[in-house]
């Protein structure tokens, strides 16, 4: 029989970047959290490689951005290079916009780093309990919570945990999603890939030709850490037991040299979006809700944005200043983003294959006729995805659009235009030399206003008032006396044209936004 366990506010299933970010965010709200991870330790494999500019904004809020940047590559590695082999010359190249150099649209810059460097930073960002080597095997929803059955990998001891809510961040093969019978839509498994982690003396060479990804005809080569280490991503061969991993690496390098293969991992590239992100008190996030192919480095980042959207809503419901129906807005807001992100990743893959197809045609022609370079079909747009990363616009009951127009989501990932319309991410402007408008946000609603204002009555919601210098209003097409109400996730909830709202108007707006 299972041993009765503790009661917590939120049980997080899955200890990857998404689950760990949710743990850190919820702890800042004072929510009691338990995180369980079926593996006995953090993953030793590099896996996700890109932390985009929006994720870094979230990590800046968690006071982690500087630590993550310190362990990451320098900005000049924010580039993809296409080559016949690693030691050949580029025949095409593209910058990762928002990573290779700062962008004026954000106070931070994205980084190229390895997931096994990111996860320890996220783990250290909170003190809530984490149990490694513990797997969720079943769960049942009750009127006031969820009962989860957990089993330890060593010894098989079973425990029952009661949680008011469960956040499932347990990957593309989510046990929670399977137990709930939630189906997915999309191509599903689209390929099998092997990661070969190896050591070779390439550091001085890569410093002269910096890139986060070298895409060759034999596979993708990636530097893992600034101090050394490499990985090769290749289609998984039929005979994995008899595969010559050092030989595969050598062919991709295009040079005979000492190669020390350290680890090999096989994995499946999935492409789908779950039909539902919520089942009562159980919510899906990250790969459990949507599996995004790796082209463009979008998957982990959209999962981080998921929990940034969700955690303030969970906290509000648990603390009583939001109603349970607010949680419906999570799927309403995030599922369309997942679908657009999946579409963008598929387009990124097509563009990569197009470049390689053109190169193969060149190599089949006479050497004298083959040009040295291939003009990328996207004209440096492969990683120019700020529209998708920063331009997300939400349509839901948690956004008031009266008088300001409905948010207009970007149809492509390439173009971002800052706007202060409800539903959109609050634009970045420097309020002081080192303080951004985004730094005014946190575990509260923010009323951004040119005119001085303070509530006459006590409000039940966490709220702070932030003055907006009048000289900034023209940048967002604001009138001189307009005011903005910004949600804790940085998206604009409401906008008033004629100065700060009255107490009654603000109370009504917050009541609507929080479904209280």
Could you characterize what this model shows?
By secondary structure, the chain is of the alpha/beta class. It has eleven helices and 22 strands. Strands 1, 2, 7, 8, 9, 10, 16 and 17 form an eight-stranded mixed sheet that branches. An eight-stranded mixed sheet has the order 5-4-12-13-14-11-15-18, sandwiched between helices. It has a four-stranded mixed sheet with strand order 20-19-21-22, with no helix packed on it. Strand 13 and strand 14 (228-235) form a beta hairpin. Helix 1 runs parallel beside helix 4 (115-123), helix 1 packs parallel to helix 8 (299-319) and helix 8 (299-319) runs antiparallel to helix 9 (328-364). The longest helix has 37 residues, at 328-364. The protein is globular and about 75 Å long. The two termini are 40 Å apart. The mean pLDDT is 89.
Number of helices: 11
Average of the residue pLDDT scores: 89
Quote the distance from N terminus to C terminus. Answer: 40 Å
Main beta sheet: 8 strands, mixed
From the alpha-carbon coordinates, what is the Rg to the nearest angstrom?
A: 24 Å
Number of strands: 22
What's the helical proportion of residues? 25-40%
Strand content: 25-35%
Quick gist of this model?
By secondary structure, this protein is α/β, with parallel strands linked by helices. It has helices spanning 17-28, 53-61, 65-70, 115-123, 175-180, 203-208, 245-253, 299-319, 328-364, 386-389, 503-513; strands at 3-13, 33-37, 50-51, 79-82, 92-95, 111-112, 129-132, 134-141, 146-152, 158-168, 184-199, 213-216, 219-225, 228-235, 260-274, 278-279, 282-284, 290-291, 445-449, 463-467, 483-486, 492-496. Strands 1, 2, 7, 8, 9, 10, 16 and 17 form an eight-stranded mixed sheet that branches.
């Amino acid at each position: 029989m299972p041993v009765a366990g503790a009661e917590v506010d939120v049980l997080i299933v899955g200890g990857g970047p998404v689950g760990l970010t949710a743990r850190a965010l919820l702890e800042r709200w004072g929510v009691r959290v338990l995180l369980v991870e079926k593996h006995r330790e953090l993953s030793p494999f590099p896996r996700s490689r890109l932390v985009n500019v929006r994720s870094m904004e979230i990590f800046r809020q968690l006071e982690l951005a500087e630590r993550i940047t310190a362990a990451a590559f320098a900005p000049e590695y924010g580039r993809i290079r296409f080559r016949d082999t690693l030691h050949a010359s580029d025949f095409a190249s593209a910058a990762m916009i928002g990573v290779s150099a700062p962008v004026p649209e954000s106070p931070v810059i994205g980084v190229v780093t390895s997931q096994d460097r990111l996860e320890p930073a996220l783990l250290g960002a909170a003190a809530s309990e984490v149990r490694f080597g513990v797997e969720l095997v079943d769960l049942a929803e009750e009127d006031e919570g969820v009962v989860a059955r957990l089993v330890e990998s060593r010894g098989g001891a079973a425990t029952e945990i009661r949680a008011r809510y469960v956040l499932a961040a347990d990957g593309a093969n989510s046990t929670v999603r399977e137990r709930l019978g939630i189906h997915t839509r999309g191509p599903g498994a689209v390929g099998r890939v092997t990661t070969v982690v190896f050591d070779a003396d390439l550091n001085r060479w890569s410093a002269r030709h910096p890139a986060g990804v070298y895409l060759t005809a034999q596979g993708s080569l990636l530097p893992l850490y600034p101090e050394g280490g490499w990985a090769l991503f290749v289609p998984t061969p039929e005979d994995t037991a008899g595969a010559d991993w050092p030989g595969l690496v050598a062919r991709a390098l295009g040079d005979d040299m000492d190669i020390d293969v350290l680890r090999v991992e096989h994995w499946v590239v999935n492409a789908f979006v779950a039909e539902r992100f919520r089942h009562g008190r159980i919510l899906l996030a990250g790969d459990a809700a949507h599996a995004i192919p790796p082209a463009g480095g979008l998957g982990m980042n959209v999962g981080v944005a998921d929990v940034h959207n969700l955690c303030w809503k969970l906290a509000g419901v648990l603390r009583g200043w939001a109603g349970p129906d607010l949680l419906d807005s999570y799927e309403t807001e995030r599922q369309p983003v997942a679908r657009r992100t999946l579409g963008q990743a598929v387009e990124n893959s097509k563009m990569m294959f197009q470049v390689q197809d053109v190169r193969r045609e060149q190599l089949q022609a006479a050497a004298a006729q083959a040009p040295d370079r291939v003009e990328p079909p996207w004209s440096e747009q492969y990683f120019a995805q700020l529209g998708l990363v920063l331009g997300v616009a939400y349509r839901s009951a948690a956004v008031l659009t009266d008088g300001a127009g409905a948010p207009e989501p970007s149809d492509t990932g390439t173009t971002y235009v800052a706007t202060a319309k409800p539903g959109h991410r609050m634009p970045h402007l420097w309020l002081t030399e080192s303080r951004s408008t985004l730094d005014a946000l946190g575990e509260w609603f923010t009323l951004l206003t040119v005119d001085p204002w303070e509530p006459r009555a006590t409000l039940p919601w966490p709220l702070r008032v932030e003055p907006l210098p009048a000289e900034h209003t023209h940048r967002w097409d604001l009138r001189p006396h307009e005011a903005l109400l910004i949600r804790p996730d940085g998206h604009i909830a409401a906008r008033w044209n004629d100065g700060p709202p009255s107490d009654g108007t603000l109370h009504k707006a917050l009541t609507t936004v929080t479904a209280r």
